[in-house]
## 1
Amino acid sequence: MESALETASQNASPSLSRLKPLTGIKIEVAGQPESSGCGTTGGEGKASCGTSDGPDDMSPEVWEKVKNHPCYSEEAHHHYARMHVAVAPACNIQCNYCNRKYDCSNESRPGVVSQKLTPDQAVKKVIAVASEIPQMTVLGIAGPGDALASPQKTFETFRQLQEQAPDIKLCLSTNGLMLPDFVDEICKYNIDHVTITINMIDAEVGEKIYPWIFYNHKRYYGREAAQILTERQMLGLEMLTARGVLTKINSVLIPGVNDKHLYEVNRAVKSRGAFLHNIMPLISEAEHGTVYGLTGQRGPSAQELKEVQDACMGGANLMRHCRQCRADAVGLLGEDRSDEFTLDQIEQMDVVYDLEKRRAYQENVEAERQAQQNAKHAALATVTDSAEDNMKVLVAVATTGGGKVNEHFGHATEFQIHEITTTSTTFVGHRRVDLYCQGGFGEDEQLPSIVNAINDCHAVLVAKIGACPRDELLAAGIEPVDAYAHEFIEKAALTWFADYRARVAKGEIIHKERGDAAIRQGAFMAA
Ligand code: CLF
Ligand code: SF4
């Protein structure tokens, strides 16, 4: 084991200065956008997953890689889709938050994978989806085990796709144990995006997360296992950075285990050139059958998650729009169309991979995206508020996309959360909820869980809302706001906040701090 590590170390020659981090997702008013959070400095220029960032913020080479990747660009995720193919069932480590009967927790919600695929079946499925969903730009292999624990299946799938669908970006997710051994292979197939799940850099923390690993034909336990894993993860990350592959680090936030430690993880991965850091909440329920589920290890609250993410600002750039999707997910982030593409259905489809048609469609998407950006900045420039105070609130927004407040409260399956100051709006995440409106009627039993999910917000901006949920929200101290229906989110939020502060100043309402909110546990069911 040691000699393998040493050999790999000698092969690695990272030039870490090539990839430097940037700042986060913040939209400033009056047409003066400023990046400060979810972005990175990639190559010689800036790169970001921030809503306001574009080709001017990064090198052309990095922009080319991220511009239509829904996970690496927060802004792109409103327009472009990804899909996963479940070709990698095996795993070589055990995480206490994983049960093999469920999707890999690295990249997935806990929920069984509907169909495990052979590479041939996977390629067929990708071609079928790409024909039906021309905005599907990224193919990821994220389990249901570890992509590099089944390397033949993983790379055979990538090999075929590189030949048959050359415009699709290839993406891989791994626990990192075998990563140093496969960096050449990753580069050979032009896999430009690699996610490594790194929950610790200290074996004392690691032994509470990983009971064992299987490495070099031997099973290692406890602290020794965690030590090998962290060394391999760091080495793999350095090797990818040296080869110019964009890396994203996923970390599962486990309260009482690694919550205080993730700041150190953030600094460590930043110094090794990670492009993005995605800090995700632990999902842990007894019915998932995981060690953590069975021992009662809880996941973080919304504010606990935000506190750790905020503490990591300024380190590696943060991804805040992850939906913890399934290992066989298909569609835009936050939606899942995998049911439309079972193997039986694909057999019936008339599949034609038309590269020109896909390109033409994506050009239209780009034009629409640019028009939306221009309109948004024009709308923001009309917001005038020069007040300078420290008041800061969160608002929840119901949106179907396009950057607008355009979803009915009862139809929302998730709310965007924005932090508002007098001069800026910052996207800080999503909160999933159960549908309030069921079959045309409001489902009052769902309201408490929806209120819990956005309980740290002062207002919820919606296109429309009925009288019953309106009263319940008001009673909970959350202001329902439908006055800005179909406005751009940032403009609506800033305008509402100016009005809110004016009412506070006049004594019409009293400003109070809000409490915490709950992160929804359990499998996501699309509307
Ligand atoms: Fe898939 Fe992951 Fe690639 Fe994205 S997902 S392999 S980087 S294409 Fe994305 Fe899903 Fe979050 Fe993963 S939203 S779970 S970060
Ligand atoms: Fe489960 Fe993924 Fe961890 Fe393997 S790496 S044990 S599949 S969560």
## 2
Amino acid sequence: MSAVQEKWWKNSIVYQIYPASFKDSNGDGIGDVPGIISQLDYIASLGVDVIWICPMYDSPQHDMGYDVSDYEKVYPPYGTVEDMETLIAACHSRGLRIILDLVVNHTSHEHKWFQESRSSKTSPKRDWYIWKPAKYGANGNRSPPNNWRSVFGGSAWEWDEATQEYYLHLFCVEQPDLNWENTEVRQAVYTSAMEFWLKKGVDGFRVDTVNMYSKDPAYADAPITSPGSDTQVAFSLFCNGPRIHEYMREMNDVLAKYDAMTVGELPSTPTLEGVLRYVSAAEKQLNMVFSFDTVDLGMGKDYKFLTKLRNWTLPELKTVTRRGQDIFNGTDGWTTVFIENHDQARSVSRFGSDKTPELREASAKMLAMFQCTLSGTQFVYQGQEIGMVNAPEDWAFDEYKDIDSTNYYHMVREMSNNDPAQLETAMQALQHLARDHARLPMQWSAEANAGFSPESSAKPWMRAHDNHTEINVRAQESDSSSVLSFWKKMMRLRKEYAEFFVFGTFELLDEQHGEVFSYLKRSKEGSVLVALNFSEVPQDFEKPVGELKLLVSSAEESERAELKPFEGRIYTILN
Ligand code: TEU
Ligand code: CA
């Protein structure tokens, strides 16, 4: 099928916005919806097609809005429902589409549904959440119904003193899991969280933790992988449960009425077959998903922060990339390409180098080329387009705000009895992998607060990166050799050569090469070669048969055969 006949979202580029950190219009130190509206021309100038806004719903913000207390209201510091209506119209008038984050595996503990549910065992909404009695040991000690560990550490069960039962929270204590087995819950979710916004004209949803709605109904203990710990990693028991595909189809029936685009977040589903069950067109469930293979590279299995720095190799990155690209090879499925989002450290710091300005810029451009030449719907996270990097190594722990980071650090402090060496290791892991890095204020200019908040305003809710004087939108917009200019060029090229880059099939070359990642993208019209140097030193690379014509290099024009440090090149192959 040619590109023109395909669904609009396949050839789209989505720009992800984290409302708290994008643009503060009124100087309270917190980004807001009017701030987003004020930067829509900038967003449109990038050449993207869709914006995705992370949760802007009313919330007590225990997990930055992924704990929704009212789906039909906007968190007041971000603005109002009217501001959202203005934003939707302002997007559409620029030819941009807008999708929202749909967070319905759980609500906030402050949502009225949960307030009612916890009010008594006989509440009509008791069954809207997952309540279970305690277990009692021989000595009469009370313990949770099973050993599941929450994604943010600690037990996934919280004891409710008033009604003497535990409720399930796969994320933080303030995020009780909804009981999707209950039909009324599903209908309430469709009406309040989905149709309320679809009727206002949003074009679809990014669906949070999409595979956790159906849990293994036995609620059995997870296998012991951390001996000596009360809690165990339990993804295999709470992801992809027996009714999940029934729920997906039911949800899709609602979304289909609005022709909405959907992208589901799909942790713990590493096989092609598992992914296809959600995204095969014939299944009518989701349009595409975010798989975790690439962004999980090098993370600890037991706790993600329990790892060595840069604990991954290039051949591993190649393998997971190929696995992700396999879906475009003869299936009726579709998926995404991304290496950053609000849950990940910055890609330049993880997969490139932020050691010197030269290496940083070179690797940011090379990574742009990497992403823009992979098949799928493309997602770019705010600040990625200017090559923003992780917070500096010398920032202290109190600059880290995310519950995932603070829970981990506090756990290490407690378990190690404040041991300085262990705390230092934990800090290093945070500096490498914390979600906080993606949440630093967007760097608009060299001015105070990185131009995120007006100069005279309150301190931004997270400290602006010290390097904002060097890395910022204003400086890069007027520089044709900047990371930003290169991203724009690559996004244009991606569309121009969509049959290769968006829709083509992927063929890995030189699988074992530890420094150069090279591959072919093929279409009916022929092939292109992509060669990416993932190292700090020049590298040779193997050339396939055929006459190569350089289409673009991420480095300054060079006659040399070798790739420069972190250089990427694309060649068309003439026969
Ligand atoms: O994330 C779900 C998820 O499984 C991970 O990305 C998780 O945040 C990470 O592994 C923790 O280290 C989604 C949202 O993207 C995230 O921001 C929320 O915190 C989470 O759901 C709960 O709603
Ligand atoms: Ca504000």
